[in-house]
Specification:
By secondary structure, this protein is mostly helical. The chain has two domains: about 80 residues, Four Helix Bundle (Hemerythrin (Met), subunit A), CATH 1.20.120; about 100 residues, no CATH class. Helix 2 packs antiparallel against helix 3, helix 4 runs parallel beside helix 6 and helix 5 runs antiparallel to helix 6. It is globular, with a radius of gyration of 17 Å. The model has no long low-confidence stretch (mean pLDDT about 85). Keywords: Cell membrane, Lipid biosynthesis, Lipid metabolism, Membrane, Phospholipid biosynthesis, Phospholipid metabolism, Transferase, Transmembrane, Transmembrane helix. Its main location: membrane. One of its GO terms (biological process) is phosphatidylglycerol biosynthetic process.
């Protein structure tokens, strides 16, 4: 159990903390939840960086890291829908894209082909994290300008979700045509 894997597990353990803070409806709960979410999300880049830098990439880490990411983002999206802050179709689209990409990767992996995370996939993750945090912060910092940063950020996240999903499908389709899986 190396440091990157511990960070991934910490991210997974922070999910129930995040959910508890949101659902308990305590004073400043959404702000605290946003902080817990940012803390959890920050371990994503950190664990990967440490694993690559120190040559500590493990099979467990390859499995747990994307799972932790998907659980964190999915739980936040579902809570936002429950709280009436996000349309269900947005959550379904984002979560559905995650299932689709995971399925493509699983099919490829069964034949020994690795479909690595793309730059678009990384941008998708960053935009989703920003959008989720912005939605939990209730547009506090931008309400005086007359626009809803959370909604705008979520629209950008949806754009990158669709674009990166199409990119993965395209790559998967090309591999299928080549007979690589």
């Amino acid at each position: 159990m190396n440091l990157p894997n511990r960070l991934t597990l910490a991210r997974m353990f922070l999910i129930p903390v995040f959910l508890a803070v949101v659902t308990l409806r305590i004073k400043y709960g959404d702000i605290i939840a946003a902080g817990v979410f940012v803390l959890a999300a920050s371990t994503d880049g950190l664990d990967g960086y440490i694993a690559r830098k120190n040559k500590q990439v493990t099979t467990l880490g390859k499995f747990m890291d994307p799972l932790a990411d998907k659980l964190l983002v999915s739980s936040a999206l579902i809570v936002l829908v429950e709280l009436g802050k996000l349309s269900a179709w947005v959550a379904v689209l984002i979560i559905g894209r995650e299932f689709m990409v995971t399925g493509l990767r699983a099919i490829a992996a069964a034949d020994g082909v690795v479909i690595s995370a793309s730059k678009l996939g990384k941008w998708k993750t960053v935009t989703q994290i920003i959008a989720i945090v912005a939605m939990f912060l209730h547009n506090v910092t931008f309400q005086f300008l007359g626009f809803d940063l959370g909604k705008i950020a979520m629209a950008v996240a949806v754009f990158f979700t669709i674009w990166s999903g199409a990119d993965y499908v395209s790559k998967g389709w090309h591999l299928l045509k080549k007979g690589e899986y």
